[in-house]
Design brief:
mainly alpha, two-stranded antiparallel sheet, 20 helices, 6 strands
Length: 399
């Protein structure tokens, strides 16, 4: 049974002659002071009638009914501003529970700095949150506070992803995962990034996280690496989503990269220890599709397979870019007077949106910038530095 914070004050049982028995939990009505003011809190009735129906053989059997929604709970949630329709779509079973802790949850989160709007949104998107006891919430919050410096940071994550905090009710597992990740050499900053970016990592079973780490260590050993533990740590810190992906997905991506780029063991190891780790969480189909599209596009542009290999090794994140977007960016750069050779030497220019690239090319064309003479580093600069450079070039066009 889920954690609860309220219980009925009386239980009545009545015998009904014949084949029907009725168990009724006496409904009690109280006034509970919450941050919503004094709100009537109703303990829902829990009736479990046994209906009769006839089977095809003519015998009479009982059919368990579907519990109705808890009307008192619905009333409370509406008063709290919860989107009941959304809650019903997401976790309908919660609305049929007899005992819940919506007011306790609301008071707890308000004490941590959450607004009424944020609390209502959290419950709307993850109704199961109202089944957690105050004791559970306090313990879990303290575990998170060992990583985060302020309550506000945790509230911000809950607002963005309620599931990350409420999905698991196993605080012991959370504590074990934290201890295990620390044992791998991850520091407080790494744990902070993991909880912020991929909080489901901490809802995984400890064994599941260990499975991925051991898999990564085995990969390192197979490729001739000398420090499997350090390799696993580097992959995790470079790709925060890796622990919430399957080992099958990651292995298939590694195998595809090796085969497609014809990489030696040492080349593959270097790629995975570097920025190549950042693409291991992609779906196998997406990675393969993007690789094939990139290869086709570069072939049309007169590039060799060696150029494709060089580009991906130097800039693996190019495989994150969808085919249409990548094609648009390359066409934009080439039309702007930049050569494919320059793109291969400075692929990070592809980090920017097509709109950003187009705007910068127009600005540079206006001041007479010569890419062949000055290179394309200017395209890979912050907005502030780019604006300063344009201002300087506008004042001294001969430069």
């Amino acid at each position: 049974m889920n954690d609860v914070s309220v219980w009925p004050t009386s239980i009545k049982m009545a015998g009904v002659p014949g084949v029907r028995a009725l168990l009724t939990v006496q409904r009690s009505v109280t006034l509970q002071h919450s941050f919503f003011g004094f709100i009537p809190v109703h303990f829902a009735s829990a009736c479990f009638p046994r209906r009769l129906y006839s089977t095809s053989t003519g015998s009479t059997e009982t059919k368990p009914p579907v519990n109705p929604e808890n009307e008192s709970l619905l009333e409370n949630l509406n008063l709290m501003g919860v989107d009941v329709r959304m809650a019903r779509q997401r976790q309908p079973g919660v609305l049929r529970k007899t005992f819940t802790n919506e007011h306790g949850l609301a008071q707890f989160l308000q004490g941590k700095g959450a607004s009424r709007k944020v609390i209502a949104s959290i419950i709307s998107r993850y109704p199961r949150a109202i089944t957690r006891s105050i004791e559970h919430l306090e313990q879990r919050w303290q575990l998170w506070r060992n990583i985060f410096q302020t309550d506000a940071e945790i509230v911000s994550i809950l607002d963005r992803s309620p599931e990350s905090f409420f999905r698991s009710s196993d605080n012991d597992n959370l504590e074990k995962n934290i201890d295990y990740l620390v044992s791998l050499g991850l520091n407080a900053k790494d744990l902070h990034r993991l909880l912020t970016t991929a909080p489901r990592t901490f809802s995984n079973s400890l064994e599941l996280n260990k499975q991925m780490v051991e898999f990564l260590e085995d990969i390192c050993t197979e490729l001739g690496g000398s420090n499997p533990e350090q390799f696993a740590k580097m992959v995790i810190t470079r790709n925060l989503y890796i622990l919430i992906r399957s080992t099958k997905r990651v292995k298939t991506n590694i195998d595809n990269l090796k085969a497609s780029l014809k990489l030696s063991d040492s080349e593959l190891l270097a790629l995975l220890q570097g920025h190549g780790a950042e693409i291991l969480d992609l779906s196998n189909e997406y990675l393969k599709k993007n690789f094939n599209s990139l290869e086709q596009k570069m072939t049309v542009l007169g590039c060799r397979k060696a150029d494709v290999k060089k580009l991906i090794i130097n800039y693996p994140m190019i495989l994150y870019i969808g085919p249409d977007t990548l094609s648009s960016k390359l066409d934009c750069l080439l039309k702007g007077g930049i050569t494919m050779k320059q793109i291969l030497e400075k692929p990070k220019v592809l980090d920017y949106s097509t709109q950003n690239i187009t705007g910068r090319l127009e600005e540079l064309r206006r001041v007479g910038y010569d890419f062949q003479k000055n290179g394309i580093n200017i395209l890979d600069s912050s907005r502030k530095r780019f604006a300063a450079k344009i201002e300087k070039l506008s004042a001294s066009p001969e430069e």
